[in-house]
Amino acid sequence: MSRKKLVLIMNRLRRLFFIDCSEANSNCDKAQYDDVKPLERARLLIHLAFCKACRKYTSRNKRLTRLLKKSHLKSCPEEHKKAWKKQIEEETSRQHS
Ligand SMILES: [Zn+2]
What is the DSSP string of 37-76? Predict the structure, then answer.
């Protein structure tokens, strides 16, 4: 294989697999929600092999996802919010009178 052809192939591979940090972070976010395509995952893994900053970002992201799953967070129903708001308003008006 000629050198020129090899460079051409390498450039094509680089364009296919090498991404910048913002795209790597975006792929990392998608991966946390299992919303990442196989090619995006491969690009992310290759980027992580070279980029220390993104490895740090990914490990923080994974830790956060793990903690959120472990905490079994639930959103508060609207009725509860209204009841609390009413209670707070009653308490503050009582303190001011
Ligand atoms: Zn990076």
Answer: -HHHHHHHHHHHHH-HHHHHHHHHHHHHHHHHHHHT--PP
How many whole angstroms from 22 Cα to the centroid of ligand 1? 7
Spacing, Cα 95 to ligand 1 middle (Å): 54
Q: If you measure from the C-alpha of residue 42 to the centroid of ligand 1, how many angstroms do you get, rounded to a whole number?
A: 14
**What pLDDT sits at residue 73?**
80
Task: Please give the pLDDT value at position 85.
Answer: 94
20 Cα: distance to centroid of ligand 1 (angstroms) = 6
Cα(9) to centroid of ligand 1, in Å? 23
Domain assignment of residue 73, given as a range: 3-96
pTM of the model: 0.62
Residues of the chain with pLDDT below 70 are none
Report how many domains make up the chain. 1
Is the Cα torsion angle 65, 71, 74, 76 positive or negative in sign? negative
